[in-house]
Amino acid sequence: MGGLNQLSGRARATSSHDRFGLPIRTTILDVSGESAEQRAARIAATEAFAREAALAVLYQVGRKEALRLFTKALEDPKLGKRPEKEFNDRLLAEHDRQIANGVKPHKAVSEVAKLIVPPHEDDEAIKRRIRRLRVDREKERAKTEQERARKELEREKRIAAGAYRGTFLGRALSEPKTDK
Length: 180
Prior knowledge:
The chain is an all-alpha fold. It has helices spanning about 35-60, 65-75, 85-100, 105-115, 125-160, 170-175. The N and C termini lie far apart (about 75 Å).
């Protein structure tokens, strides 16, 4: 496997490959345009790396411990759960564009799913994702609005309690407003 520095035993990353010599994929969209040959080559490189890594671990700690380590690593609930922010942002932007064009919200979800369906995912999964992203965005907006209202209420309480008395801000707040 290329990319290993023979002197230090460390792998080097390039702009298009990770430190193990495998192609870098940031989102599922990165592989949506690959040909069958490119996919086969990527899978073959991944298999070769997995074999080399497994052998290296096996030689270091023995079969029983290697199996325990790999089992523990594969059972990690966070494994493969990295957020795909770019893809999620693209889904929401397309959904918002559909809404701006007058499409009803429930229909917009279906339209976006038809337009943006990555390989190996069905449009129902995309619909669920868009709905979840919409709910998350609304929760975030509500949370931000609640925080703004809470800060405004605290500010009004400080003003009422005279916290700014004797300061420039206190004088400005105590003067009656005049419309000119």
